[in-house]
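ok so heres the complex, two chains, lmk if somethin looks off
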Amino acid sequence: MAKNTVVIDAMGGDRGPAIVVAALIRALQSFPETDFIVTGDEPRLKSLLARESKGLSVDLSRVRIHHTSQIVQMSDKPGECIRKKADSSMRAAIDLVADGTAQACVSAGNTGALMAMAYMYLKTLPGVLRPALVAPIPNEAGKQGFLLDLGANPVCDAETLFQFGVMGSVLARELSGIEHPKVALLNMGTEEIKGPDVVKQAGLLLSQSKSVNYTGFIEGSDLFSSAADVVVCDGFTGNIALKSCEGMAKLVYEHFQRSMKSHWLSRSLAWILYRRQRKSWAWLNPDQYNGASLIGLRGVVVKSHGNASANAFFSAISNAIAEAELNLPARIHNQVEQVLQEQH
Amino acid sequence: MAKNTVVIDAMGGDRGPAIVVAALIRALQSFPETDFIVTGDEPRLKSLLARESKGLSVDLSRVRIHHTSQIVQMSDKPGECIRKKADSSMRAAIDLVADGTAQACVSAGNTGALMAMAYMYLKTLPGVLRPALVAPIPNEAGKQGFLLDLGANPVCDAETLFQFGVMGSVLARELSGIEHPKVALLNMGTEEIKGPDVVKQAGLLLSQSKSVNYTGFIEGSDLFSSAADVVVCDGFTGNIALKSCEGMAKLVYEHFQRSMKSHWLSRSLAWILYRRQRKSWAWLNPDQYNGASLIGLRGVVVKSHGNASANAFFSAISNAIAEAELNLPARIHNQVEQVLQEQH
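and the predicted structre for the whole thing:
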């Protein structure tokens, strides 16, 4: 297996490059077969690398710093980044994948800008209409499911949703080892007559394809059930679904905290319970779900949450390495080609 | 104040008329100023009324049974119900509101059929484009928010979303007593450039209206925050948002149950904690959020969850009575007229 190189945008996240470099040091230790390039302000990154690796046995010769003078801000508009941020750490990361120097890149920066740059300079695979943002989601069986699109494409036509099903299916098979992943469309009911026309048309396309194990519509209430391994929707819907879950979790968690603080007995009981149960709940720790993949492109692009911790950013790097080792873009390419031949 | 009459579809729910009659008996006791009509199979309802009221001091003369021979099934298509279920308990309930015999109706039956019948036979208020399904949602401040549309209109144009904002605003003011309810549009970001065109156009309409306290876009993660009292979206999005929250809650709850059962100590601690905290969590009991209102019609229509318990169905009846007493349709009518005059 050829040695892979992963390029990391150090300047993108809300919490600055120190978090990114800490995660990189951990990746250097965990993935001895991978080389790294880190894009951003060279003097700053040099001193951070020295500081974070102090006392650890890591081989810093496996990291190359690629200096850039600009930073894409969270408030920047995608179009403007394309025109005005040619020497940004994000653009350099994309370019290094596009020219084959690296096989994958990771950024915690502005999602819209990352998608625009990836679409413009890395480009979609032949036959792929649109790249999709996909993230792993927990499910009741303790397995991992996948939800796409999460915001790269607010509005989609039926053919695009169909392709998301095809690409998501490859992802679930390669990353989770499920031979025939169950693919479902997120809809407002499970009956065939339910929902917007575009979702019904996508359902028809999926049901006619031999390459996809299509199981029909599922509702939001089954998002985390074992009813599907891959759940497909447009980017607007995916964003609303995932963020609403976050809102619900926040509501319950904040009330839990408030109510537990109300009396020493509750506080104590909750603490003992937490200690006992911590391991059993580890699968729900959001850190390990950090790292959404932008798939359908000619290279691996992983988007970390903007305010990821070093642990969470490390998960995103791990995802990028796994996808590069599997050569996921080539596998998606093969599958999409096969489906296109089926259709014609 | 004139005495109101509320008509109840006894045959609609998944759990049969016994649940409905039990809730009705409780309503008879709690609302001495309201009369009731119950639609469905007369012999069965007669015996259920006798059984459920046994030993209680309730005045059954305040209930009239309206016999019907048909039942709308959950699997029935709305269009077919319109054509073939003219003597159903649901249709009778709508007709009794339409002809002024009753001021409100409650049904736990097929949502699509209820909406179709209400739209066809009760009709929308003058100037109202589409009725909307709206439900109360909990929020962090311990107050009640409202989310609409929840599925009556899978796809909406900007003008329809704008009207939902106007109607939702009236609802929050009248039912929650908030003088200038904050109205927001559910979107995939808070910046003005985010989201589908139709949402942006609706935002423009809302921001130009003097009658609505519009606060901009909110994301799913703020659905239960105090950022908004009324959250507006199309029916597809509202359904996905609410059901995804349900899915998340189910995931956490089921894991909680499993993990608590794993050891006697966890089981015991969880039980003690539950006993201590029960009151503090009562505000999250879904029973009290049962009863979504179909607003924008010439009468009050409340939809109960299909498998509601007697307690939950009682909440739906309470909502219907509150809306009838406030004469909510007239208030919505006034507000919509005012807005239409503003626009022309």
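quick notes: The CA atoms of residues 46 and 247 of chain A lie 39 Å apart. thats all i got rn
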